[in-house]
Amino acid sequence: MQFNNLGAKYVNKDMIDEAILNFKRALLIKPDFAEVHNNLGVAYSRQKMFDEAIGEFKEAIKINPDYSKAHDNLGFAYRQKNLFDEAIAEHTLALRINSKDMEAKKNLDIATEEKRIYEKTRAYNTANKGIAPGNITGYNYYVRGFFDEAILSFKKVLAEDPNDVMASCYLGNAYSMKGMLDDAIRIYKETSSKDPSNVVAQLHLGDAYLGKGLCDEAIQEYEKILKAYPENTRAIFKLGEAYADKGLLDKASSIFNKTIAMNPNFTEAYDKLGAVYLRQGFYDEAISVWKKLLELNPASARAHFNLGLAYASKDMTEDAIAQFKKTVGTNPTNTDARYNLAYAYEEKGMIDEAVAEYKKAISVNSGGQEKSTETVNTQDDTEKVIVTK
Asked: Does the pLDDT value for residue 253 go beyond 70?
C-alpha cells in the first residue's frame, strides 16, 4: 500500500518513471493487487505505452471483474489504438457496474463519436483514393502526444489533397493541444466549410474561440450548431460556459438549467451552475445545486470544496468546516481547501486546529510530505483513483 501511494504521488507530480518503479515494487509484494495494476496501467498510458497499459488493465479486471474504473481505463487505452468497438464495450461495462460514473459516460460518448468520425473519414478517403498514408502516420503521432510530428504529417496530406477532412480535423486538434489556437481556429473553419455536417469540428472551433477569450465568436458558433441540432447537450452546455465567461450570468444559469433538464446526470452542468449562483450571491441556490451533484457523485472533492465556499459565504462555519474536511480527506494536496479550512477554524476560535491546518497547507505548497498515510486508491472513491483523461 505504501509503494502504491508513493507511486500515486509520483504520477500526480508527472514523475512517471518513478511511479512505475513503485507500482512494480508493490506488485512484487502483492501480485493480486488490482488497484496497483490499474494505476500501473495509467502510468503506462501517460508514457504512451498503450500495449503495456492494456495488459495491466486486463490484469486488474482479471483479479476484480467488477472493477469499473479499470474497465473505463481499458476503454481509453483501446481508443488510443483505434479499437473503438472494444473501447465502447469497456466503457459500457464500466457504466453497467457503476451507473453514476460520469467519467465513463463521457468517455463512452467520446469513443462513439470518434468511431463515427473515423469511419466517416475512412469511407470518404476510401472513395477518393483511399486513406492517405500521411493520415495514418499523423494519427499515430497524435494519439501518442507527438504533436509536432503529427502536424507535419497532416500538413503533407493537405498539401496533396486540400479536401482531406480527416487531416484537417486532426491538424486542428494537434494545434489546439499545443496551444496554437489561432492556427486551430483557421483549420477548424476550413474543415467546417468542407464538411458543414461535422459537428465535432464546429464544437472544437467554439472551444478554440473560448480558449482565446473570444466569447462572442464562441457563442455564435455554438448557436449555429444548435440551429441544426437543438438537442446537442454538449453545445448547449458550452454555450452556457461562454455566457458565464462573458459575465452574462442570468443567461448562463438559464442555459445550465436547460442542460440539466435535458440530462439530469450531467455533472459538469451542476458544477458550472453552482459556480454561477455563487458569483451572483445566490448562496442557497448554489448549495442546493452542489448537494444534488454530491448525490450523483458523493466522492467529488470539487463539489465538497465548492459547497464549503457557499456555506462560508452564508457564515455557516460549522457546515463549511465539515465540507472542507471532506475535501482534504479525498484530496490531501488541495491547498485552497486547507487554507479555507484553517480560516474557518480561526473564525470558530479553534486556533490550534487552524495553525495545524495552515502548516499542512504550507507543507503541501513547498512540496513537503503529509504525515498522514493516504488510503489506497479504490474504485468506490472515484476521485482518488488515478484516471486517464
From this structure: yes
Cα 25 to Cα 3, 20, 376: the distances in Å are 7, 9, 15
345 part of a folded domain: yes
pLDDT in tens, 42-78: 999 988 899 999 999 999 999 999 999 999 999 999 9
Contact by Cβ (8 Å): 157, 125: no
Are 260 and 266 within 8 A, CB to CB?
Answer: yes
Nine-digit cell at 237? 452546455
**Dihedral sign for Cα atoms in the order 303, 309, 315, 319:** positive
> Whole-number mean pLDDT of the chain?
85
Q: How many domains does the chain have?
A: 1
The whole domain housing 319 covers: 298-381
CATH of the domain at 367: 1.25.40.10
Helix, strand, coil: what percent of the chain each, to 5? 75, 0, 25
pTM above 0.70, yes or no: no
